[in-house]
């Protein structure tokens, strides 16, 4: 991995283009191995990895406008600490595997390039919705900008959405402007456990309640550590009374449905959970189904023993398991189930003994490939890894 000075970056990318050399954009390199393998130049096993580690400045925090502009290599943990000092935050979960206080959360550029979000998307939407401006280097070294630095002046092509989840395949993100939010003053939560039909009824009630949950996550039976799956509800507000009132109503509704109810601090529970599962998964799956179908997935026998956390309003999230708990053929069954339930399953990480395609072909494959040719005509970037294109050619 090379980590060039910001002043040398553009010329280096131009030179790589002149040589038609394959390379992989990177942040801190914490999760580069997830997804399909990336090929290097002929005769080289590994691609050249170009890190934004030295592009690590917070450029501008416009606290009055609730926006922040950062260089792509700024660590997320550092950004959150700086925003917190001004009473604000980026409303984004710590990425999976970060540890309880975000020790290994990687860079802001890496976060956007992967495009994954956790349960906070219920209230604040996904990471692509938080991104309002972007600067990048194209494969030939041309610098390009899209969006702006204020929430309302987006004009031209929406490269922000294109680059969110691009996995380094379209260009090197160098700078980002994101929305910030005031740190919520009061928070509270419940863990609700019991039979799926009752939980589903409660899920619908929570989503229709006057105070929109900050998060409402499905926890699989294995993650709850008992005989039932659960719903983790978190509320945030400027008013403690509003939270108490809503929690009381949800508690009563849950008890009437015969659910077990536990009051808790959701942040503390998530931190404990992150600590327990740190670095402990052979399988890491990104999955999604239509939100109303999540209970069918949770009840599926192929899902037994799998740890999973899904945003209940969106039906998307992560699942993980040890190789001994989850043979490959069950992952294939789960992939078929997700498809049948209106969604997808991507394999981010798998045991060395397994060789599943990371993702199936998307119906938009021809468009994705056309965009790739436009941005990277020499196929230099993340060669072998293009989201939505099954380059392994192996059927899932
Ligand atoms: C709740 C949640 C769960 C998540 N779970 C996962 C998960 O399970 N697996 C996962 O991989 N990620 C996950 N993420 C995304 C995670 O935030 C990123 O993978 C992480 O930030 C990587 O940081 P890094 O700097 O180490 O990036 P790297 O590991 O260095 O790179 C990660 C990816 O981003 C690309 N990339 C990095 N920087 C740039 C850049 N400047 N320009 C273009 N492309 C770039 C790389 O090519 C690579 O594909 C999750 C995020 C959230 C919010």
Question: How would you portray this structure in words?
Answer:
The protein is of the alpha+beta class. The chain has 3 domains: 6-182, Uridine Diphospho-n-acetylenolpyruvylglucosamine Reductase, domain 3 (2-Layer Sandwich), CATH 3.30.465; 184-276, D-lactate dehydrogenase, cap domain, subdomain 1 (Alpha-Beta Plaits, 2-Layer Sandwich); 279-355, Alpha-Beta Plaits, CATH 3.30.70. It is 30% helix and 23% strand. The chain has 13 helices and 17 strands. The chain starts with 5 loop residues before the first helix and ends in a 21-residue tail after the last helix. It is globular and about 70 Å long. Strands 13-10-12-11-15-16-14-17 form an 8-stranded antiparallel beta sheet, sandwiched between helices. A 5-stranded antiparallel beta sheet has the order 3-4-8-6-7. The chain has helices spanning 6-18, 76-85, 108-114, 121-124, 127-130, 159-163, 196-208, 221-224, 240-256, 266-277, 294-299, 328-340, 365-375; strands at residues 23-26, 48-51, 58-62, 67-71, 88-89, 131-137, 143-147, 172-179, 181-182, 186-193, 215-219, 230-237, 260-264, 283-288, 307-311, 316-321, 344-349. Bound molecules: flavin-adenine dinucleotide.
How many strands appear in the DSSP assignment?
17
Counting structural domains, the number is 3
pLDDT averaged residue by residue: 92
Radius of gyration: 21 Å
The fold-level CATH name of the largest domain is: Uridine Diphospho-n-acetylenolpyruvylglucosamine Reductase, domain 3
Residue ranges: pLDDT <50 for 5 or more in a row? none
**Helix segment count?**
13
Q: Percent range for helical residues? A: 25-40%
Structural class: alpha+beta
Molecular shape: globular
Which CATH class of the largest domain is shown? Alpha Beta
Largest sheet: 8 strands, antiparallel
Query: What is the topology, as strand order, of the major beta sheet?
Result: 13-10-12-11-15-16-14-17
């Amino acid at each position: 991995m090379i980590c060039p000075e910001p002043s040398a970056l553009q010329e280096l990318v131009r030179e790589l283009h002149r040589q038609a050399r394959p390379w992989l954009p990177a942040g801190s390199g914490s999760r580069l191995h997830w997804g399909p393998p990336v090929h290097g130049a002929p005769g080289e096993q590994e691609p050249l990895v170009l890190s934004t580690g030295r592009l690590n400045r917070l450029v501008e925090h416009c606290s009055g406008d609730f926006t922040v502009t950062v260089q792509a290599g700024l660590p997320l943990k550092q950004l959150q600490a700086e925003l917190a000092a001004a009473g604000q935050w980026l409303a984004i979960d710590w990425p999976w595997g970060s540890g309880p206080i975000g020790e290994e959360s990687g860079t802001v550029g890496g976060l956007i390039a992967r495009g994954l979000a956790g349960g906070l998307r219920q209230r604040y939407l996904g990471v692509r919705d938080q991104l309002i401006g972007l600067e990048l280097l194209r494969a030939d070294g041309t610098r390009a900008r899209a969006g702006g630095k204020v929430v309302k002046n987006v004009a031209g092509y929406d490269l922000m959405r294109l680059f969110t989840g691009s996995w380094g395949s379209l260009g090197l993100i160098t700078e980002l402007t994101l929305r910030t939010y005031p740190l919520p003053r009061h928070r509270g939560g419940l863990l609700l456990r019991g039979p799926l039909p009752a939980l589903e009824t409660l899920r619908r009630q929570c989503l229709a309640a006057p105070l929109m949950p900050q998060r409402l996550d499905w926890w699989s039976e294995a993650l709850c550590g008992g005989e039932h799956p659960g719903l983790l509800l978190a509320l945030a507000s400027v008013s403690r009374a509003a939270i108490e009132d809503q929690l009381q109503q949800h508690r009563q509704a849950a008890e009437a449905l015969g659910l077990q109810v536990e009051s808790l601090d959701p942040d503390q529970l998530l931190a404990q959970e992150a600590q327990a599962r740190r670095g402990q998964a052979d399988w890491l799956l990104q999955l999604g189904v239509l939100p109303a179908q999540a209970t069918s997935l949770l009840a599926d026998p192929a899902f037994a023993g799998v740890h999973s956390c899904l945003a209940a309003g969106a039906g998307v999230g992560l699942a993980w398991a040890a190789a001994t708990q989850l043979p490959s053929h069950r992952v294939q069954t789960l992939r078929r189930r997700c498809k049948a339930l209106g969604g997808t399953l991507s394999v981010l990480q798998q045991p060395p003994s397994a060789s599943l395609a990371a993702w199936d072909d998307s119906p938009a494959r021809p468009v994705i490939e056309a965009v790739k040719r436009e941005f990277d005509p020499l196929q230099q970037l993340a060669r072998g890894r293009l989201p939505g294109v099954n380059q392994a050619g192996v059927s899932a």
